[in-house]
UniProtKB/TrEMBL annotation:
Name recorded for this polypeptide: 3-dehydroquinate synthase
Classification via HAMAP family: DHQ_synthase
GO molecular function, one term: 3-dehydroquinate synthase activity
Gene3D superfamilies documented for this protein: 3.40.50.1970, Dehydroquinate synthase-like - alpha domain
EC code(s) of this entry: 4.2.3.4
Location in the cell: Cytoplasm
Pfam families: DHQ_synthase (PF01761), DHQS_C (PF24621)
Free-text comment on the cofactor: Binds 1 divalent metal cation per subunit. Can use either Co(2+) or Zn(2+).
Keyword Nucleotide-binding listed: yes
Length: 365
């Protein structure tokens, strides 16, 4: 099957390509003006990154940098080490970064590219389903701090994105399922056809070679493209639509859970719980029909994602949610739904509704 090219418009247009065995496209995406390329990859993915490094060596001066696995890569210390390596190897503004890995590598590598010489080009080669449908497209980069997740970062659009579905063949099933958290989220916020596919497809058949999985990936990426092209820097939508903030549906609680669990919970799992929680908040506030909240439980659990959480007291999570990026001063702001594909912002929800929703997903008092 031929590759699908999804164009991302805007001030710095690029293409997100979805297909199989896309490595040979990488030099063409980087272009002839580049002399040096830094390949940033998660150290456990060295074997997966090596063929790309060998391909690039024929065209560029290549620096391969292994990174810690997962969220451990998203620190100021790791970013500093990358900057020092780029400096030692003489990277200039016309050179480039290539990321190979999941969302953490994409976030960190994008941040390094955004900040080195105030911005060099970056190409993302996501190797997880989560990174393909979330981190790789849209230009958000970031690292974590002790206060929370992704609180330091910048907007820096890539030169291109290569979503090679072949790389998913070595992905543990739990990680593949976790990636579906962001996919199902896209169904609720914008594309009901995603929900129909999820609800009518045997979850066991959603494998890397599955035409349905490919369609889900492409649909989720299209949802993100449509949103970010209209509101790249999260300044707000029109007509009551939250704009880019809609992509944070479920993330307010999700990020708080991730921090409470020391980032040992898969992001997609946390997002699934967070979306269900957001639906319960909206239902408690009288904004959303309880039947749609119930559909959240059913859709996420159908593909094997968690929909309950009892790992931390609500007060601990609330303290973290108060420093969420969507908050304004002391006012909490949640992305919620009025119905499927009808998102809005709920400002200053009543604490009783927040607590009631937490109880609905099994949380302790």
């Amino acid at each position: 099957m031929t590759a699908t090219v999804l164009h991302v418009g805007g001030a710095a247009p690029y293409d997100a390509v979805v297909g199989h065995d896309l490595g040979d496209r990488l030099p063409g995406v980087l272009g002839d003006a580049v002399t040096r390329v830094a390949v940033l990859y998660a150290e456990p993915l060295a074997e997966l990154a090596q063929p790309l490094v060998e391909l690039l060596v024929d065209h560029y001066d290549v620096l391969a940098l292994g990174l810690p696995e997962g969220e451990a890569a998203k620190t100021a210390s790791v970013a500093h080490d990358c900057w020092e390596a780029l400096g030692e190897h003489g990277f200039t503004r016309s050179d480039a970064v290539v990321t190979v890995g999941g969302g953490a590598v994409t976030d960190l590598g994008g941040f390094v590219a955004a900040t080195w010489l105030r911005g060099v080009r970056v190409v993302h080669v996501p190797t997880t389903l989560l990174a393909m449908v979330d981190a790789a497209v849209g230009g958000k980069t970031g690292i974590n701090t002790a206060a929370g997740k992704n609180l330091v970062g910048s907007f820096h659009e890539p030169t291109g994105v290569l979503c090679d579905l072949t790389s998913l063949e070595t992905l543990p099933r739990g990680d593949l399922v976790a990636g579906l958290g962001e996919v199902v989220k896209c169904g609720f916020i914008a594309d009901p056809e995603i929900l129909r596919l999820v609800e009518e497809t045997d979850p066991a058949s959603l494998t890397p070679g599955s035409p349905v999985l490919r369609e889900l990936v492409e649909r989720a990426i299209r949802v993100k493209i449509d949103v970010v092209v209209g509101d790249l820097k999260e300044t707000g939508g029109t007509g009551g639509h939250p704009g880019r903030e809609v992509l944070n549906y479920g993330h307010t609680l999700a990020h708080a859970i991730e921090r409470a669990e020391g980032y040992t919970v898969r992001h997609g799992d946390a997002v699934a719980i967070g979306c269900v929680y957001a639906a319960e908040v909206a239902a408690a506030a009288g904004v959303l029909d309880p039947a749609v909240a119930a559909r959240h439980h059913e859709a996420f659990s159908r593909v094997g994602l968690p929909t309950t959480y009892d790992g931390a007291p609500f007060d601990d999570l609330l303290a973290t949610m108060r420093v969420d990026k969507k908050s304004r001063g002391s006012v909490l702001r949640y992305v919620v739904l009025e119905d499927v594909a009808r998102p809005r912002i709920l400002e200053g929800p009543a604490e009783e509704h927040l607590r009631a929703a937490y109880a609905r997903i099994g949380g302790p008092a």
